[in-house]
Design goal:
Elements lengths: L1 H4 L3 H27 L6 H45 L1 E3 L2 E3 L1 H18 L3 H16 L2 H9 L11 E8 L3 H14 L4 E9 L3 E8 L6 H12 L4 E8 L4
Antiparallel strand pairs: 1-2, 3-5, 3-6, 4-5
Pfam families: MgtC, MgtC_SapB_C
InterPro entries: MgtC-like_C, MgtC/SapB/SrpB/YhiD_fam, MgtC_SapB_SrpB_YhiD_N
Family: Belongs to the MgtC/SapB family.
Length: about 240
Amino acid sequence: MQALHNINLPSLLDTLVSVGAAFLLGSLIGFERQVRQRTAGLRTNTLVAVGAAVFVDMAARLGGPDGAVRVVAYVVSGIGFLGAGAIMKEGANITGLNTAATLWGSAAVGACAGADLLGEALIAALFVLASNTLLRPVVNRINRRPVHEESSEATYTVRVICSRAARPEVMDQLLVQLEAANYPVRDIDQHAFGPADTEIAATLYATAVEPEELDQVMAELEALEGVQQAFWNASAED
């Protein structure tokens, strides 16, 4: 019967508003992540925000402000474990850091909503979205023109298959075309491809590209005499 005594309509309405705000703002963050096909997308970010809001709201109701503060601390550390699951290491490349950071931001949004700080929750959500959208072109431009080229990590590789006789000219044109498109080459390799052809592989410094631009470069390379095929591969991005 204690459960019936705990029913309080004003408190339930307050919880509904808090969790509803966390749901909407978490969905907003998750939608942007889902559009970009990230590991933690719409549902994950929404659940993180809602879960954080529920825990903080419950703690505030049972233990007052002091209880809510303690639960917020646990939410922060708990999301660290969830974020660690989104981080992957592939050789020298580490991916998922931005996804983990976004989950952390979603938890902060939910915690604010659970503490009835709806204005703060909205501000936090807007800044998380701004970090993932407005700063993206800046990151792309910086990665295209690395300041310290020797320490940059390539995530894209351009491959050209051509006849061995045409290899020198094709390699020169490959470098020229990529530099003209502002995609500096980090490393270039070549090896035999069948009895009479050669495969040239150019690894780029850039961590983000415009597919249309690279496709145009591939079309120009394929038009060269002796080239059978030109294409590019992308590794996982955070």
